[in-house]
Fold this sequence. Notes:
By secondary structure, the protein is an alpha/beta fold. It has helices at residues 16-27, 61-74, 98-126, 151-171, 189-196, 207-217, 226-237; strands at residues 7-11, 31-36, 52-55, 80-83, 133-138, 176-183, 248-251. The radius of gyration is 18 Å and the shape is globular. The structure holds nicotinamide-adenine-dinucleotide.
Amino acid sequence: MKLQGKTALVTGGRGGIGRAIVSRFQQEGAYVYAADLSEQGSLGIENQECGHFLKLDVSSEENVKAAFTRVTEEQGKLDILVNAAGIEIEKTIEDTTLEEWNRSFAVNVTGTFLTSKYALPLLRAAVTEKSTASLINFGSYDGFIADPGLAAYCATKGAVHALTRAMACDHGPQGIRVNAICPGYIDTPMLQSFFEGEGSGGEGGTIESLQQAVRDVHPMRNYGTPTDIANLVNWLASDEARYASGQLWVLDGGLSAQVQQMKL
Ligand SMILES: NC(=O)c1ccc[n+]([C@@H]2O[C@H](COP(=O)([O-])OP(=O)(O)OC[C@H]3O[C@@H](n4cnc5c(N)ncnc54)[C@H](O)[C@@H]3O)[C@@H](O)[C@H]2O)c1
């Protein structure tokens, strides 16, 4: 078991990707907090075996402070922080209200800032001569190249990428590795909402035809699963990845490697 004796906290821990990460960390022997707005998370299903639930709104400084006070009292250290909480507004900037723009940044960027800020003393407390601490943010392939109709989301993910590199520089000397996972299309409630949303570009077609078109455009001819993401997160969280830091890890079935939508 790669994570025996380690403590981890996963924000968005009851979401599609978050649950897969929490379960994998538990299988690897870690003590895991699943931090989310509600026990049901985006899937709308309770699963009390999926981590120790911690009610948390990552955009609230008060909430974040209280969460890490609990971790300090119960564990005294944190080896792994995964910032997977996120929201997606499916609109162009003309259609995005200032409130929606600010909310996107409050959750995706400020949330990552706040949890990282208050986790850092606990992450430092976990570092030993043999072991680093690992902080893993969630960017997106949308932080590199844009999907139509996701303007605010793309902007937040670009910010998370830049913040990841900056944090890796600042905290590497303290033994803390900082990386970002940049998924492509992963089958979760967020992806289903994208398919159903106005920004999907699916005018005239059915959701099924749009889903098939998205599969077809991938070199691997499919989108990914939360388990695919959890596998990479698990490695980055473990001591096997002791020299991996400051990187944006794209996991997208080859999507961003090709010239897209061109039928040759
Ligand atoms: N699914 C994809 O295709 C995809 C692609 C690229 C990036 N991502 C990123 O991966 C991460 C996980 O996405 P997912 O697909 O599992 O989404 P999801 O919607 O299934 O889960 C997100 C979780 O975050 C929680 N959350 C939202 N706002 C919160 C807040 N203020 N405080 C605490 N928790 C909050 C939700 O309750 C939900 O359980 C996100 O950062 C997302 O942007 C997903």
